[in-house]
Amino acid sequence: MLLLAGLLRRARPPRRPSVRRLSGLLDRYGFVPPASLTPHSASDDGGAKKRRPKKPPYRPPSSLDRGGRPAARSDLLFDFRFSYTESSPGDKPIGLREPKYSPFGPGRLDRPWTGLCAPAVDTTLRDAHADDPAPAAERELEEARRRERERVLGEPLTPAERAFLVSKCQKSRTKKQINLGRDGLTHNMLNDIHNHWKNDEAVRVKCLGVPTVDMQNVCHQLEDKTGGLIIHRHGGQLILYRGRHYNPKKRPVIPLMLWKPAEPVYPRLIKTTIEGLTVEETKEMRKKGLYVPVLTKLAKNGYYASLVPMVRDAFLTDELVRIDSKGLPKSDYRKIGVKLRDLVPCIIVSFDKEQIIVWRGKDYNGTIQDNTQKTSVSVLEEESAGAESENGDQEQASSDWASDECSQLSSSDEMPDDKSAISEADSD
């Protein structure tokens, strides 16, 4: 048996390699695979479609992306500044805190940014021997702006029209209001005023804080930059009229600032020695100023229109004046000190312990201040008389402006040519 099994095993043919058999379902049902499952090159069939390109990654919308649009062009005939009441073209800084990044955004405005403003006139000299074209061009712009304002305002309002607009803008009739705070009249506020003028002929402006020290400058800048007319004033509340021929559809293009530019570096306010005094006398005066009786205490976001005449009256008897400014931000009472220096005028002694200490100086003469006040009051009376004669009925106009005359306690309302205060100076 064992021999027979061995012979049979030897006689069995060798195994063939297994062959993979395909299923017969392909022939029975006629299934044709799609082209995507059969790998082939693009050269095999010239009509084959190319792959769909990938979509670009999602980018969130941004106000800095102009999308190929050209830069905005504005027809406003003045230099664009962040604040028109808290900065003055005559005050020259000694440096900048950052490079000259335009607060309007890159490529959004056709005017260059100088670090302080976006000038309407290109002041770059093309020739070293040529005269500076800026003064003549600025005078032309100012004259053109005056003519355009007179055209839009049209004929003066009658007393009845003025009284109607004033009553319409009172707090009991409407809640619409523009708040003017520590930054003063900013550039973006011009756009808010024109938005209010789209539906109403007049808008109420409420002024509080640092700018109220010089209310005359606030009123002048509001009328000059907006082209409107202040028809009523009671303390820090103003009513700004747009004019008879104002067309909301033809309002000026006002490009908006996207961020607040950094303040430039100004000279130090408090120096080691006061001009005309020695170091010992300066130290003694600063120590003495902290013990002088307080003239007044400033409230946060208050109305400071009576501050300048109070300081002037105090200088008639005292050489040092101390103003308590506890609770106010450091930048606020420094700006107030600068305004007092320019409007009184006086010399800043110290800001220690949140106190504003000012000195009248050695050459102070009270009679000069009295004469200046009298002449300024006479000028204001002549201007008000001329305005009443233009309007016609003097009795009704005087009743409308009664609250105005009662609120003219600030020296800024009396001095027609005072300079506006500069921005916050460099900290000590």
TrEMBL record:
One of its GO terms (biological process) is Group II intron splicing. Residues 33-70, 130-152, 378-428 are annotated as: Disordered. One of its GO terms (cellular component) is ribonucleoprotein complex. It comes from Oryza glumipatula. Residues 394-413 have a biased composition (Polar residues). This is CRM domain-containing protein. The lineage of its organism: Eukaryota, Viridiplantae, Streptophyta, Embryophyta, Tracheophyta. Signal peptide: none annotated. The keyword Metal-binding does not apply. PROSITE patterns: CRM. Gene3D superfamilies: YhbY-like. InterPro entries: CAF1P_plant (IPR044599), RNA-binding_CRM (IPR001890), YhbY-like_sf (IPR035920). One of its GO terms (molecular function) is RNA binding. Keywords: mRNA processing, mRNA splicing, Repeat, Ribonucleoprotein, RNA-binding, Transit peptide. Residues 380-393 have a biased composition (Acidic residues).
